[in-house]
Amino acid sequence: MPLVDQTSVTDNSANSIADIIRALMRHDPDVIIVGEMRDSDTVEAALRATESGHLVITTVHAVDALHTLDRIDGFLNSAYRTSGLYILGHALVASLSQRLVKTVCPACHQTAAAGEVFGGVERCQELELDADGMVALANKEGCDLCNHRGFLGRTLALEAMFPPEDQSSRRAITEMLVSNVSNSITDIPGTIYMPRRDSIRDLIARKVVDANMGAALLVEEAATRQSRR
After folding, report:
1. Which of 19, 47, 64, 176 has CB atoms 3.0–4.6 Å from 15's, for a disulfide?
2. Phi, psi torsion values for 36, nearest 5 degrees
């Protein structure tokens, strides 16, 4: 890719990801992309890069967008935790949680009213779906396009959180991170938050995913939210 320099890091590499991030700082990069943060040294190096004004894009294994912040906190050692969370609270641009779900075949999928699929209006209300709306069902027999599987490809069920940028909000975010109450960040005025359940409902309404599969994901999301309270 033009204007992009890539450095491969393996278990046998002489330098760690943290070493390479620190070395990259001397080359005046516009954006630093870290493939994955999975140890304290990498997290600390990435946060120090943001402290100097660089945009850092990275990934971490987490359940949802808010749990991402808890995961980063968990990597920080006690000596650096307060400083690291201060940097995170003031530099955070967005937290995105991506989950891939199967998409129904556009050529052979079937459609039906949500009320019929889910067994009545009451169940649709529980799932917050329009009972009269049409939803997609994967064709069990499939077709030649989907190799008779009923599904073709995958799409994102996305959860996104964009914190406000004013200083008072940033101070509030930092205090929440230090106090281990990151769940409250979405309550700060100006925070843009799209829970995954809204993304799943949109995919169901647009007939992108199988309705039954989407409903199962909604139930799973509800259980996850309950466990985080």
Report:
1. 19
2. -160, 140
- Residues 174-216 have pLDDT tens digits of 999 999 898 899 999 999 999 999 999 999 999 999 999 999 9
How far apart are the C-alpha atoms of 87 and 177, rounded to whole Å?
A: 11
| Beta-bridge partners for 99 | 157
- 26 Cβ partners below 8 Å, 6+ apart? none
Tokens 């749990």 sit on residue? 67
For the entire predicted model, the pTM comes to 0.82
Task: Compute the C-alpha angle 77/80/84, nearest 5°.
Answer: 110
- Tell me the H-state helices in the chain: 17-24, 40-51, 65-75, 81-91, 114-117, 121-127, 167-178, 196-205, 211-228
**Rounded distance, CA 74 to CA 202, Å?**
33
Q: Which residues of 36-52 are buried (b: 16+ CB within 10 A; e: fewer)?
A: ebeebbbbbbbbbbbbe
